[in-house]
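Page 37, continued from 36.
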C-alpha cells in the first residue's frame, strides 16, 4: 500500500487581505511564494496540523474555517490541501522556512510569484475575499 502524505496550507485572511509567504528552502522552491503550512504528523487532523504549523512558522494563533475543495500533487508521495483560516492573535513573522511575508489585497494577489501548485487555491481564496468572507 502506498501512503500519500498530506501537506496542509492556510489561506490566512485578515482585514480583507491574504497572507503570502516566500520560501527560503529547499533551493528548488526558495524565492517562490506559497500559502504557509506543512506536513500532517501521525494522528493529527488537517486543521490541527495547520494551527501547529502556523504557530511554529509564523508565531501566530489561527482558526481554520473551511477547506478549499481540491487536492494538488506536490513532489512524489505528497498532496496539498488548503484551508481558509482567520488570524486570531499575533503578527506573522518569518520564523522558519520563509524569508518574507506579505499581506495581499485581491487586486495585488498576482504581484508575487506563487508556486504553480498553489495557484488554484489562491484563486479560490481571493474569490472568497472579494465576496467579503473573513475566512
Ligand atoms: N507549506 C507549504 N508547502 C508547500 C506548498 N506548496 C508546495 O509545493 N509545498 C511543498 C514544499 C515542501 O516540499 C512541502 C511542505 O513541506 P514543509 O517544509 O512546509 O513542511 P514541514 O514544516 O512539515 O516540514 P518538515 O520540516 O517536517 O520537512 O510541500 C504550500 O503552499 N505550502
Amino acid at each position: 500500500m502506498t501512503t500519500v502524505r498530506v501537506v496542509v496550507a492556510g489561506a490566512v485572511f485578515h482585514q480583507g487581505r491574504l497572507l503570502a509567504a516566500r520560501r527560503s528552502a529547499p533551493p528548488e522552491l526558495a524565492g517562490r511564494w506559497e500559502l504557509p503550512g506543512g506536513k500532517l504528523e501521525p494522528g493529527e487532523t488537517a486543521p490541527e496540523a495547520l494551527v501547529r504549523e502556523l504557530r511554529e512558522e509564523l508565531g501566530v494563533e489561527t482558526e481554520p474555517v473551511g477547506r478549499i475543495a481540491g487536492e494538488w500533487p506536490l513532489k512524489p508521495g505528497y498532496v496539498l490541501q488548503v484551508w481558509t483560516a482567520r488570524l486570531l492573535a499575533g503578527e506573522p513573522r518569518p520564523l522558519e522556512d520563509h524569508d518574507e511575508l506579505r499581506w495581499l489585497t485581491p487586486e495585488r494577489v498576482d504581484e508575487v510569484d506563487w508556486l504553480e501548485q498553489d495557484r488554484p487555491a489562491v484563486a479560490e481564496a481571493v474569490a472568497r475575499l472579494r465576496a467579503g468572507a473573513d475566512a
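The chain is about 20% helix and 40% strand. Flag for discussion at group meeting. The first strand starts at residue 5 and ends at 14.
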